[in-house]
Amino acid sequence: MSAPGLRGGIERFGNTVGRVLNRGGSAAAPRLDLSHDIILYLEGITVSFDGFRALNNLSLYVEAGELRCIIGPNGAGKTTMMDVITGKTRPDLGSAWFGQTVDLLTLTEPEIAEVGIGRKFQKPTVFSEHSVFENLELAMAGNKSVWRMLFAKMTPEQHLRIDEVLETIGLKDHRAARAGSLSHGQKQWLEIGMLLMQDPALLLVDEPVAGMTPQETERTAELLVSLAGKHSVVVVEHDMNFVRSIARTVTVLHQGSVLAEGSMEQVQNDPKVIEVYLGDGGH
Ligand SMILES: Nc1ncnc2c1ncn2[C@@H]1O[C@H](COP(=O)(O)OP(=O)(O)O)[C@@H](O)[C@H]1O
Ligand SMILES: [Mg+2]
Predict the structure, then answer these.
(1) Which ligand does the CA of 48 lie closest to?
(2) How far is the CA of 2 from the centre of ligand 1 (A)?
(3) Strands 93-98 and 102-103
(4) DSSP β-bridge partners for residue 262
(5) Cα(209)–Cα(207) distance, integer angstroms
(6) Which end of the chain is more exposed for a tag (fewer CB within 10 A), N or C?
(7) Cα 108 to the center of its chain, rounded Å
(8) According to the model, what pLDDT value does residue 252 have?
């Protein structure tokens, strides 16, 4: 890797955490502590909707820097789990910790984003009328300081950071293109890039390859694999071939709980999984 002195501060995981630590600044600001190498703890999470348990005593642990795939039939609770992690839904029971010290259940949605959890929704939300570069520039500012950003000159470090993200998401040659003119897949990558501008320690991605061409799907697999290590990545996806191509550890959800966890091969050969999920027509 070239010029580690200039770029290393952005690239190395330890420094990503350092940036998170520097956010906020108030004495009460939560701090990410990865001293036990676990970035996410979900324990005994139960979410009920009118008595129906969308999540039922769910426990899940994600290691720092890991790429985790979550699979499971429709209605298994995958999106609800993401909603709990990001503060959109509050569980009836259980605990959710980000590292050793950040109790996610005490934070609002914006605070959870601020402390270093980024979420990619299925529908891309790029600014169509702005260029790819400008989209990344706006994302770097976050919501708070867009006004200041418009009048401030970007620092060389900020320029480098945008260049680096453009490279990561494969849109270097499209930096001047209007975001609205991009293909569906390119928009998805741009949105991942916008999340990366905030340097999240944990990135949650819900069904990233829905609607993508096979080439775009393959490129997305490479992209997500390349993010692991620097970031922890949790991917929910239905597309089995995609999961097979990126998976390290796979967690199978069923009726709001973990049914099985292990390598793709282990879960595929697990009789419980075959019965409730893969055996059911393979969808
Ligand atoms: N806001 C809600 N109100 C009522 N039921 C919901 C709500 N959100 C999700 N559910 C139900 O919870 C279950 C889990 O949904 P979801 O988390 O979206 O599953 P998945 O993403 O795995 O398909 C489903 O049965 C769904 O209908
Ligand atoms: Mg879902």
Answers:
(1) 1
(2) 46
(3) antiparallel
(4) 250
(5) 6
(6) N
(7) 18
(8) 94
Residue-wise pLDDT tens digits, 77-128 = 999 999 999 999 999 999 999 999 999 999 999 999 999 999 998 777 899 9
Query: What residues have CB less than 8 Å from 104, skipping those under 6 apart?
Result: 84, 85, 87, 96, 97, 98, 112, 117
How would DSSP label each residue in the chain? ---HHHHHHHHSHHHHHHHHHHSS-STT------TTSEEEEEEEEEEEETTEEEEEEEEEEEETT-EEEEE--TTSSHHHHHHHHTTSS--SEEEEEETTTEEGGGS-HHHHHHHTEEEE-SS----TTSBHHHHHHHHHHTTTTHHHHHHSPPPHHHHHHHHHHHHHTT-GGGTTSBGGGS-HHHHHHHHHHHHHHT--SEEEEESTTTT--HHHHHHHHHHHHHHBTTBEEEEE---HHHHHHH-SEEEEEETTEEEEEE-HHHHHT-HHHIIIIITTTT-
**4-278: CATH topology:** Rossmann fold (3.40.50)
Q: What pLDDT shows up at residue 28?
A: 53
CB 135 within 8 A of CB 194: yes
**Where in the chain are the domains?**
4-278
Sheet containing strand 257-262, strands side by side = 117-120, 202-206, 232-236, 67-71, 249-254, 257-262
With pLDDT > 70 as the criterion, what percentage of the chain qualifies? 83
Of 55, 70, 80, the one to substitute when testing ligand 1's pocket (max ligand atoms within 8 A of C-beta) is: 80
Residue 54 CA to ligand 1 centre (angstroms): 6
CA dist 33 to 36, 104, 107, 200, Å?
8, 13, 16, 14
**Chain-centre distance of CA 213, in angstroms?**
21
**Which atom of ligand 1 lies at the shortest distance from residue 83's CA?**
17
